[in-house]
Specification:
268 residues; alpha+beta; 11 helices; 5 strands; elongated
């Protein structure tokens, strides 16, 4: 890579930050990043609590987009470590392995959905926006390409301040999906990004049990759940037994199946 190539691509990227629609910025950013690091795919999602994340940019083929975007938006995003990190307003460059719960790669979510992506690794630039919104630009490498090397990850982390600044210039805020006009005394209920227990409101579970369900599906072990909820592991096991009994299931696979049923009912 010559210095002139770098300056030329950077000038194109800066100019593209002024666009208000289209993929010019995304393509320019991908071209600039590829001058430094190789990757197979790039996607940008916006996150607003538990709401369905809007797609802002992608490099997938139609077939790939079905898995990475369409299926993801139907519900799996709720179990995605990147989604959780975004609503917790993390900023900077993060690798999936740094954010994933301790049993993520053995979770039913990973086996049932994430493994379909055929990814060796996913990394992301996390960009908090005004209010509680956030954007995440993900870079992905397929199994055939192998994971990002240590030097690549270090370089991307060093580039994070510039990447985040460019993203904020292009997308200073997420488009609102609230009604343009509200009747008198009518308010829009805010989404609590840390409590998605409303997803389980159709089930006869206690608030604590709903929290355990959420953490189990994300890929947390009993010990990790205990730390997150500030209870002892034995109490977590009691909650899990009660959950399985109430839902008439026997495994995490059954729990994930109930999650899929609820998500399917939401999108019909």
């Amino acid at each position: 890579m010559s210095r002139s190539d770098e300056y030329s691509q950077l000038a194109t990227l800066v100019a593209a930050t002024r666009e208000t629609s289209g993929d010019l910025f995304g393509k320019a950013l991908v071209d600039w990043l590829r001058l430094h690091v190789s990757f197979d795919h790039c996607v940008v999602f916006g996150y607003r609590g538990a709401s369905r994340p809007p797609l802002l940019f992608e490099t997938f083929s139609p077939a790939e987009s079905h898995v990475f975007v369409a299926l993801y938006q139907e519900g799996p995003y709720l179990l995605d470590p990147f989604h959780h990190a975004a609503v917790e307003r993390k900023e900077g460059f993060w690798r999936m392995r740094e954010l994933a719960p301790d049993r993520f790669y053995a979770s039913e979510y990973f086996r049932s959905y994430y493994s379909q992506t055929r990814l060796a690794e996913e990394v992301g630039f996390f960009v908090p926006l005004p209010g509680k919104d956030a954007l995440v630009l993900s870079l992905m490498r397929l199994r055939a390409s192998g994971p990002f090397g240590t030097a690549d990850a270090r370089l991307l982390r060093d580039m994070a301040p510039a990447v985040i600044s460019f993203i904020r210039l292009r997308w200073p805020a997420l488009a609102t999906d609230e009604p343009a006009e509200l009747k008198q005394d009518e308010t829009v209920a805010p989404v609590n990004e840390f409590d998605r227990a409303h997803i389980w409101k159709s089930l006869s579970l206690t608030p604590r049990e709903k929290h355990v369900v959420d953490l189990v599906l994300q890929g947390h072990s009993t010990e990790s759940i205990a730390r997150a909820m500030r209870i002892v592991p034995g109490t977590v096991k009691v909650h899990r037994r009660n959950i399985y009994r109430k839902l008439k299931i026997k495994s995490q696979a059954g729990l994930f199946a109930r999650f899929v049923e609820i998500i399917d009912a939401r999108i019909r």
